[in-house]
Design a protein that fits this description.
With about 200 residues, the protein is of the alpha+beta class. It contains five helices and eight strands. It has a single domain, classed as Alpha-Beta Complex (Maf protein). Helix 1 packs across helix 5 and helix 4 packs across helix 5.
Length: about 200
């Protein structure tokens, strides 16, 4: 595969995710395309899994069967311990898919009003699945631990990043540069693990 870019279809229409994936593995001779790039953004995928991994597999499998191509998919979200790990697998749909993350973030902050720092523990989780045309699937999981902050901070990142505080860094993931975030993020960890698995599969 040396000198020839390997094309991998990613089952997402989320441009923030695509940007991160391209940044994390952009130098590895891989050309990533999104559902939008392939004009598949209107394909309906029913994510009725009970875990991040199940939903990632559902997405990868559906698009793989539709296109006959190797397909990478992730399902990720925020787990807040004080809220019994909500929003969890419903992170993207929490309070409605069309609700802005600013409103979602403010709502979460209000739910944790008066909750002391020690009980504000949370994590970002990312499950990644790669479906192959021959029917087999490989999966990886990445997590990053943190706390829910008291206000939105930072201009980088997207989604719940402005309220996800990293005590060891003294800032939110939204205050990190893209390069810093990608080194430690749940998606970065899941994607780098997937990269190693795809090398084992001799795909890359």
């Amino acid at each position: 595969m040396k000198g020839q870019k390997k094309k991998i279809l990613v089952a997402t229409g989320n441009e923030g995710k695509m940007e991160e994936i391209r940044q994390i593995l952009g130098g590895e001779n891989i050309l990533f395309s999104s559902l939008k790039d392939e004009k598949l953004q209107d394909v309906e995928i029913i994510e009725d899994g009970k875990t991040f991994e199940e939903n990632a597999v559902i997405k990868a499998k559906k698009i793989c069967e539709l296109t006959g191509k190797m397909v990478l998919a992730d399902d990720s979200g925020l787990e807040i311990d004080y809220l019994d790990k909500a929003p969890g697998i419903y992170s993207a749909r929490y309070m409605g898919e069309n609700t802005s993350y600013h409103i979602k973030n403010q709502h979460i902050i209000s739910l944790l009003e008066g909750v002391e720092k020690e009980k504000r523990s949370a994590r970002f989780v990312c499950a990644m699945a790669c479906a192959f045309p021959d029917g087999h699937i490989v999966t990886t999981l990445g997590t990053i631990e943190g706390q829910i902050g008291y206000e939105e901070k930072g201009e980088n990142g997207f989604g719940y990043d402005p309220i996800f505080y990293l005590p060891e860094r003294g800032c939110t993931t939204s205050e990190l540069s893209p390069e810093e975030k990608n080194k430690i993020s749940h998606r970065g960890r899941a994607l780098l693990a997937m990269y190693e698995k795809l090398k084992e599969e001799e795909v890359l």
